[in-house]
Amino acid sequence: MNGPTSPTGPVNGTGPVNSTGITGSVNRTGPAEPVNRTSPADRARHEEGPAHAGDLLRALDAVSAERAEDAVLSVRDLTVRFRLRGGRSVAAVTGADFDLGAGECLALVGESGCGKSVLASALLGLLPGNAEASGTARLTGTDGTPDVDLLAADEKTLARTVRGRRVGLVPQSPAAHLTPVRTVRSQLEETVRALTGTARRARRAAAEEAADRAAFPAGHLDRYPHELSGGLAQRAATALALIGDAPLLIADEPTTGLDRDLVERTADELRRHADDGRALLLITHDLTAAARIADRVAVMYAGRIVEIAPAHRFFGAPGPRHPYARGLLDALPDRAFTPIPGMPPELSALPEGCAFAARCPRADDRCAVFPEPVAGVACHHPERPRA
């Protein structure tokens, strides 16, 4: 996402890359210290046994539903179209519906070009001039601030009261968001001043603390953006985003260019943001990072969200139910390592029915009509849960 510099601040992990563009090697046994992110589902199986695991999974489903009711962000029918020459248009996002609760991390995953970053741009009012966005995206007010529809708000409202203050951004392209003529330290201190009102004498320490949270080395703080590697620029942008502790943080591919240790450290810091009672929308190709910190997973294909599921069910048993979502996991090296055949359709020439039908081994005549979501899955013949 490209856009103007703002007081917001940038993880897509390293690892094997398959034909889906998805990276990672998913293991729901959780990371090493210092943060224990072992999945509740795995803990149930190992500590309580199969009988108790089922009870715990049902309890976790109830927790996910409760978080949705306490939504920080409620998105309904979010649709984005890009107008092209000759009267043509591209359906980048169609009918997106989801809730994101306080204390929750929702991971939005899918192949490159499926509309994930466009959705994030729409929420922040950073779409280009030829884009048309419709639907609603209600950001719930906190501490006396009013609710705001992010899709209907004008630029003045977004720039002065939303971006950075109520919605933080870890951008996909940090180089486009860092000011090229100012050092990283200068940008951090200015963001500290703008978002927290910290006194001048305390800003240096606050900037260094923000850099440390994002694993940005103190010895590079006085460098300019062009002197940074891609990974360092990503960490600088992440540090900027974490300042101010916005109630909602959108992290768009925040692990890009980082080695696995830094992916885990950055993911854990983003998770702490949610654990402190805030909301995190994690947009990523890195399914390992998603499995590490997400509470729920939303799968996007050809501009539509085709499945939303609790993370413990998505990455563990019974697994995803949409054939495309299952294909993403099966393409990983530690799973079947079997790529999804074919290519995604052009967003300017989507079929009337299910956009995945041409690649789906279960497709039949029913797929000529688009399937409406039922129980979180938009599919005429969802996968049966595995034992």
Write the layout of secondary structure elements.
Blueprint: H1 40-48, H2 50-69, E1 71-83, E2 89-101, E3 105-109, H3 116-124, E4 131-139, E5 148-149, H4 155-162, E6 167-170, H5 184-196, H6 200-213, H7 230-242, E7 248-252, H8 260-275, E8 279-283, H9 287-293, E9 296-301, E10 304-310, H10 311-315, H11 323-330
Parallel strand pairs: 3-8, 3-9, 6-7, 7-8
Antiparallel strand pairs: 1-2, 1-4, 4-5, 9-10
Put the structure in a nutshell.
With 387 residues, this protein is an alpha/beta fold. It is built from 11 helices and 10 strands.
Structure keywords:
single chain; about 375 residues; alpha/beta; six-stranded mixed sheet; four-stranded antiparallel sheet; 11 helices; about 20% strand
What does this 3D model show about the protein?
The protein has 387 residues and is an alpha/beta fold. It is built from eleven helices and ten strands. The chain has helices at residues 40-48, 50-69, 116-124, 155-162, 184-196, 200-213, 230-242, 260-275, 287-293, 311-315, 323-330; strands at residues 71-83, 89-101, 105-109, 131-139, 148-149, 167-170, 248-252, 279-283, 296-301, 304-310. A six-stranded mixed beta sheet has the order 6-7-8-3-9-10, sandwiched between helices. A four-stranded antiparallel beta sheet has the order 2-1-4-5, with helices on both faces. Helix 1 (40-48) packs antiparallel against helix 2 (50-69). The longest helix is centred in the first third of the chain and has 20 residues, at 50-69. It is globular, with a radius of gyration of 20 Å. It starts with 39 loop residues before the first helix and ends in a 57-residue tail after the last helix. The model is unreliable at 1-19 and 28-53 (pLDDT under 50).
